[in-house]
Structures are given as structure tokens and as C-alpha cells.
Amino acid sequence: MTSLIRHITVDCAEPHDPYELAEFWSQVLGFPVDPRDERGDDEVALEVPAGHPALLFLRVTGEKTVKNRVHLDLQPELPRDKEVARVVALGATVVDDRRTPNGRGWVVMADPAGNEFCIEVSAAERAALSGTNG
């Protein structure tokens, strides 16, 4: 017997609110906030397509003190650099820029609560790079 991933849980420490963090991720990923969840709830989820784990934002005590050991790697529809700019405009910050001169690499970002995630190149960029060396 095996297990399925039901939720990917994102911690949300004060002063951040799980609902507000869910709204941020809703704009990043294009999935709506679960209509059963409300402002002030300790747990707020995004509605995702059937068969995929939901993102769950959970109110926790204590601030984050170390780098996340698990994080999301996003492959955007837009070119990577345009997606980085879009997500920064939504409230994310750049933590580490790992882009390389040959067009590869990624950008380490943090959501408004400080949780890290990475933005990689888009599928189109990946296909164009597959013919290059390096």
C-alpha cells in the first residue's frame, strides 16, 4: 500500500494571514481560493484540478529561521524573466538569482511570508535551449 500526496502545506506565521497568502498563490498559479475558506481561517486551500495535491496555507506560530528544505519549482507559461517580474509585482521577492549567461538557470523567490520557491525557464525556453551546449 502506498500513500498519495493530499496537500502541499505552506506555513504562514504572524503577521501573515493564510487567506492573504492563498490569494497571492492564487494569482501566481491561476487556481482559485477554496470558496469554503474565509478570511481569518487558520487553514486556507486553493482549488486545484482533480488528481493533483491541493496547496494548503496553515497558520503557525514562530517565524521561519532557516531555508526551506522542500520548495516548489515553477515552470511558467511566460518566459522566465517575464514571470519573475510578474511575481515580484504580486509581492514576491528575489532571494537568489541563479540565471546563467547561456539562458539556463532559475531564480529563487520568496512569497510574502518568506517561503522559498523557484522560477525556472518556460517549456518553450527549455525546448530552445535543448539544442545548445551547456
TrEMBL record:
InterPro entries reported for this sequence: Glyas_Bleomycin-R_OHBP_Dase, Glyoxalase_6, VOC_core
Domain VOC: 4-122
Matches recorded under Gene3D superfamilies: 2,3-Dihydroxybiphenyl 1,2-Dioxygenase, domain 1
UniProt cross-references to SUPFAM superfamilies, sorted A to Z: Glyoxalase/Bleomycin resistance protein/Dihydroxybiphenyl dioxygenase
Protein name: VOC family protein
Organism expressing this protein natively: Streptomyces ficellus
